[in-house]
Each structure stands twice: as C-alpha cells, then as structure tokens.
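Support request from a user on the community tier.

User writes: "When I paste my structure tokens into the form, the page sometimes reloads and wipes my input. The last time it worked, I copied everything first. Here is what I submitted, just in case something in the input itself triggers the reload:"
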C-alpha cells in the first residue's frame, strides 16, 4: 500500500471523469460570478446558501446532499439539519428541504422544488435524502419500451407525531413541475426511522420486471414499476419487499444499493445482502462484519461497484464506519470464483487524514454517497473520489469553531492499485477561509466547460445556518494536476432575523414522566440538569410539580427558562445537548427512559404589563397556578387590554399574586394565546380567592363591558396548580 501526501500541484497526472450520475452547478446571488467560459485555474464557490432567488424564494440549507445532472441541467438537493429555518420556523412554517436547479453555466441557482410546500399532506422534510436521474427500459409488464424513459426522482423522509413517511417526487421536464407520491408511511415506535438513502433501477432475472428499488429506512426496501398512466410515471408497490416477512424491520437504516455481477446488493449496518430474484424474492446475507453499529453513522457506507482486481467479475467497495470512534476503513469484497466472497482491507481515512495534517485523528466519517468513478485518459485507469471528515486532536486553529472537526473539506483519490492521495476543496484550510467540513457529493459539469463540482457540509449536530456549499474548479485543479488559486474570501454570515435577536424570551416546558420514573426525573434535574443548564446560559426561572390532580397529571414536571433571545435559546440548547457531562448523565441507567411522551416546549415573550407584575412577591411560597387562555380570532389584544387595565389589579385585591404574563413567540399561537402564572397562599386559599374575585362587582362590570363584542375565549381555560421544588429559583 502506498500513501502519497497532498500532491504538489505541478506534478503531472491528468484525470477525466467518465462516469457521473451526479452533478453540480454554479452561482446564485451569493455564488460565483466568474466567467464560466474562461478556463481559470482557481476554485470558485458556486453556491453560497442564504439568499432569495429570482422567484423570491429563500435558497439556503445547512448541507448539500446530492448533485445530479439531468437532461443538460444541474440539480442539487439540500437539507436543513440544525438550521434555524428548520429549528425556529419563520411564520410557524419550517423550511423543508429543496431541490435547486441551474440551467446554464453562467446562470444562478433557483429553487425548483420545495418538498414541504408540494406534498399536499402538510408533511415537512428536513433533508433531501436521495436525488437521482434514473432510466427505465421496460414497462410495468416487462416489455421493452420504444424509447428509454429518463426521470429525475427525489425521495425524502418526514416525521410526524408517532409516525413517519417516505415521499417521492418525479419531475416533468416539459412543464418544470414535480408530481408527489406518498410511497409509504407507518409508526416510528421502537426507533423506526423513515430515511430513504438510495435507489437503483434493476431488472429481475426471473420475472423480467424492471423496478426502481427504494430504501425506506429501517422498514426496508420497496420498489416501483414504470407506468405512464399513473401520476409521475412510477407505480409504487403497496408492500415492503424486505425484511417484512423475516424480522419486520432492519436494525439500522440501510444506506446503499448497487448492481454487480448481475445481482442487486443492499447494505445495512454491518451486513451486505444479495437479492435472490423471483416471484417471491429473498435476500441472502453475504457479509456480516459482526459489530454493532450506530444507526446515525450507518456502518457500511458508500456501496460502490468496481472491477474485480483479482479476477473476473465485479467487487463491492465500501467504507466501514461502525460508530463514534470510527476510523472509516475502506474495504473491498471480491468474488472468489466459487460463489463466495473474500474481504480485503485497503486503507483508513483516519490514517490518510492524520498523515496529511500531522495530527492525531479521533474519529472520521465519509462516503456520504457512492464513490465517484473517474478515468485517467492516458492509461484508462479508473480512480474513485471519496469525501470524508474527521475530528482532530490539537491544532485548534484548523477546527470548525465549537467542535473538534477539521474545518476543511478533504477527499481521497483511490487508484486501481489501491493507493490513495488526499486533496482538499479550495486547497488546504486556513483561518479566515470558508468552513466546509465535508464533501458529500462530486460531479462533472454538464455544460462542456470541463469543471468538477463538489458539494457538501455536514452539520454534525452543530448550528449550521446557511452553511451548504458547492465549489467548482477545472478538472485538472480539482484532481491535483494543476495548482489552483483559492476562491475569493467568503462573505460575512448574514445576521438572523431581527425578531430572533430581541429579548428576553421565556420557555415553558412540561414533561410527563413514565410510571415509577417521576422521582428519577426530579433527581436528574436536582443533581445534574439545573447546573448544566446554567453552564450553557439556560437560566431557570422556576421548577414546579403538580399540587393536585389525577395520577397522570401528577407525573408532570413544569419549568420555565429565561433566554436572552430566541436565537440565543437555539444556540444554547444546541451547546447543552452536546455537553460531554450531559451526555454522560444520559448514559446513567436510572436516568434513562424517563419520559412518557414528547416534552411540551413553548417559547414566550413577556407582555408589556408583565414587567410590573413579574416576581411581585419576593417570597411567594404557597401554590402557583399556571393558566392558558385561547381566544377567538382577533380577540387577544382586547383580552390583554383587560388584564393590563383591570384584571391584574383586581387579582392583587383578592389575594391572587401576579407572577408573569406571556404570549407565545411562534404563530399561530402568538395571535390567540395568553399564558400566565399567579400565586396563592395555599391550595385551599386559591379556591377562596377565585370565588371572591368572581363575585367582585367591579370585576363583573369590567367583564360585562369588555365583552360587548363577544366572548374572549374559544374554550375553557386550561389550568394546573403547582408547588415549587426545593431547588427552584422562584420558591
């Protein structure tokens, strides 16, 4: 095995791409404006997320998932993982993943598909999981088509309360529209994840049927037939082909499909399966690395078909990344000529990265998609491009701030003799350059300009607002034959929307503990959570438990946090979730499986009359009462006027002590909801206070006059009586 350090840019090696099922693109308003017709030996940032396209649509994303060439145009699928437009929805509508389109070499990127706004079910999609240009040669009956049908297909997964779904969209290239189909949906109980990571057209050798196979995530694999009579042209099966009849679901989400040696292969976790064709197809496990895998990392990644270097037939090349300490080992599975297979290890991305940077590498991940084949025009040798990322120990100036991740975008060039070279998008990373982190997808320009496009970023659970990127360079530069100049200095990051920076903002959170787990939940907060909250700028206002009520109600845990702003809350929660001490707490058995349902989280802004009432009693003691009012449309301002001018004063008169009044931050609740907290000397006294208040003649007069135009409330108020815990700031 031979390792070459990052090549000297003048060394001779001419490479050309001959296989490209992906694609790239160029500029938008924040992208490159270099003349595409000029052959300039430099890197150029083609897509810089975070602008409004020509149609008035936000073009953004935290990641570029795929680049695909289709019928002379360029398409890209983005994602919004850990992007504020997903986490803090503008106008209460999360920004779903998009497909971007580039029509010409000099044209900008436009939003071609918004997955959230186009499915008809109200489903939202965080990532564009798989985008591919596929070609059918047979109809649904197995008959050859007069002309092959080339379709651009997008598939993505959505989650909703206790369920998930996989959707597919097919583009009509004549009209520029997309047709949506809900392929499959079901429960997410037990950790089931609906994540379609790959698709592949394959002809069953027994039935003669040509199908587009689609990975659904843990539920397994399904397929569809070409049928021009149905919308979109693909008739999806109503059943899951594998592993429905065996295990019901897969342990981890499968990541790859590939055709080799006349068969279809599927990778999942530590295993590779071969499809056994027929009317009732089966799947035979041909490899099991027999190691538990982290479903987020995936195990076997980037399943790619290559020529068998040791004999006839084709081999399977893949990257092995089992978990958080992965070294991303590239392995190869060769046919042994006797119906079996032989496994070979080639290299680890951790070793390549360590030698390139001169630092210890503690974790690597790579091969987000298939490894792109590229051919040497002089020798005919096929090489493969493999993107990867890694955590570095030391050299903090080379890290993405707030992480251990290398801030550059490294990729390996694999030669047929199993030697590897390391290159970087936009040359070696240095402080002040654009943070890139990870190349996910590679593709040759379809515009005849001999450019290679590379797209990526991996959010890795860190805030990644508008960090999706695509770079391009002449092929000779991208493959290290020539020295290419750096791209121009990056733009400054656009600030968040003004309303996200205003504050303070309060957050009401309500947990419901599992039976017999309530005490452990309180213990976790008392011993750990409260302290770690404060370390990350999460300021507790108070912690409470129910003072009475039914059994389930008494398993609730209520608390309020104060944040400098809504964006600060987003930033601080992200920091808290990645705290090593907090991760260790979650690993303690007694603090696991505490909650019976998803926590309620409501961000709120204090009403103008709340400031005078807030914390009006230094030592309230007694019991608290949390109330929620939902008004008829348009009636919230009048209700607030009544509280401001009359109600709070009358509360004090009758022993109801004001603590805080808030309006939800997000729509639609911000237009119709009032949430407030008051205090009583005791639970018994609370009943007496409300009785006295309701009988007050002045209150009756105010209530009558303020509701001349109709009643305020859409439904009866929700309320819960609470008592403060011993570690609560507000006792």
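"...and here is what came back when it finally went through:"
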């Amino acid at each position: 095995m031979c390792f070459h350090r990052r090549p000297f840019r003048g060394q001779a090696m001419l490479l050309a791409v001959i296989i490209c099922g992906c694609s790239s693109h160029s500029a938008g308003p924040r992208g490159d404006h270099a003349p595409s017709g000029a052959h300039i030996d430099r890197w150029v940032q083609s897509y810089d997320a975070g602008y409004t396209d020509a149609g008035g649509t936000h073009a953004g994303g935290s990641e570029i998932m795929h680049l695909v060439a289709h019928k002379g145009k360029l398409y890209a699928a983005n994602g919004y993982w850990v992007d504020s437009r997903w986490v803090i929805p503008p106008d209460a509508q999360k920004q779903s993943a998009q497909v971007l389109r580039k029509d010409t070499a000099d044209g900008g990127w436009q939003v071609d598909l918004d997955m959230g706004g186009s499915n008809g079910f109200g489903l939202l999609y965080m990532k564009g999981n798989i985008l591919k240009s596929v070609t059918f040669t047979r109809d649904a009956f197995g008959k050859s088509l007069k002309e092959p049908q080339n379709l651009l297909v997008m598939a993505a997964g959505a989650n909703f309360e206790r369920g998930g779904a996989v959707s597919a969209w097919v583009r009509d290239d004549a009209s520029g529209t997309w047709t949506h189909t809900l392929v499959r949906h079901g429960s997410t109980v037990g950790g089931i994840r609906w994540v379609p990571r790959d698709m592949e057209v394959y002809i069953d050798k027994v039935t003669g049927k040509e199908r587009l196979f689609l990975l659904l995530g843990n539920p397994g694999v399904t397929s569809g037939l070409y049928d021009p009579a149905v919308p979109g042209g693909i008739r999806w099966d109503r059943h899951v082909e594998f592993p429905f009849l065996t295990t019901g679901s897969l342990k981890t989400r499968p990541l790859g499909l590939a055709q080799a040696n006349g068969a279809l292969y599927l990778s999942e976790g530590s295993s590779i399966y071969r499809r056994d064709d027929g009317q009732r197809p089966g799947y035979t496990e041909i490899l099991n690395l027999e190691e538990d895998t982290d479903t987020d990392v995936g195990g076997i990644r980037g399943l790619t078909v290559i020529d068998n270097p040791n004999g006839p037939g084709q081999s399977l090349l893949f990257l092995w990344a089992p978990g958080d300490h992965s070294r991303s080992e590239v392995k190869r599975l060769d046919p042994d000529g006797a119906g079996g297979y032989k496994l070979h290890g080639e290299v680890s991305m951790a070793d390549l990265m360590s030698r390139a940077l001169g630092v210890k590498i503690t974790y690597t991940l790579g091969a987000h998609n298939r490894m792109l084949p590229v051919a040497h025009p002089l020798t005919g040798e096929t090489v493969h491009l493999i993107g990867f990322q890694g955590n570095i120990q030391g050299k903090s100036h080379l890290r993405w701030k707030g992480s251990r991740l290398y801030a550059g975008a490294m990729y390996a060039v694999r030669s047929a003799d199993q030697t590897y070279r390391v290159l970087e998008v936009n040359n070696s990373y240095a402080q002040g350059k654009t943070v890139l982190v990870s190349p996910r997808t590679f593709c040759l320009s379809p515009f005849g300009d001999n450019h290679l496009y590379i797209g990526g970023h991996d959010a890795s659970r860190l805030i990644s607002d508008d960090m999706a990127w695509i770079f391009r360079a002449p092929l000779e530069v991208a493959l290290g034959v020539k020295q290419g100049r750096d791209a121009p200095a990056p733009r400054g990051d656009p600030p968040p929307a003004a309303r996200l920076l205003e504050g303070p903002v309060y957050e009401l959170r309500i947990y419901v503990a599992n039976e017999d787990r309530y005490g452990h939940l309180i213990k976790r907060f008392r011993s750990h959570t409260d302290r770690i909250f404060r370390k990350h700028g999460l300021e507790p206002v108070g912690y409470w438990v129910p003072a009475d009520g039914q059994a389930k109600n008494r398993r609730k845990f209520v608390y309020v946090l104060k944040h400098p702003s809504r964006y600060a809350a987003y930033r601080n929660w992200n920091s808290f979730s990645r705290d090593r001490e907090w991760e260790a707490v979650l690993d303690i058995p007694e603090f696991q499986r505490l909650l019976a349902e998803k926590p309620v989280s409501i961000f709120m802004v204090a009403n103008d009359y709340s400031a005078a009432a807030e914390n009006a009693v230094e030592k309230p003691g007694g019991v608290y009462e949390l109330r929620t009012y939902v008004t008829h449309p348009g009636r919230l301002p009048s209700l607030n006027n009544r509280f401001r001018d009359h109600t709070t004063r009358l509360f004090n008169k009758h022993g109801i002590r004001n603590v805080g009044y808030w309006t939800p931050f997000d729509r639609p609740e911000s237009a119709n909801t009032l949430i407030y907290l008051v205090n009583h000397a005791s639970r018994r006294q609370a009943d007496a206070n409300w009785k006295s208040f309701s009988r007050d003649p002045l209150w009756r007069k105010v209530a009558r006059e303020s509701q001349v135009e109709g009643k305020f409330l859409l439904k009866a108020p929700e309320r819960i009586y609470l008592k403060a815990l011993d570690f609560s700031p507000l006792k």
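Agent notes: The reload is a front-end session timeout and is unrelated to the input. DSSP finds eleven helices and 40 strands in the chain. The domain at 3-478 is CATH 2.130.10 (Methylamine Dehydrogenase; Chain H). Escalated to web team.
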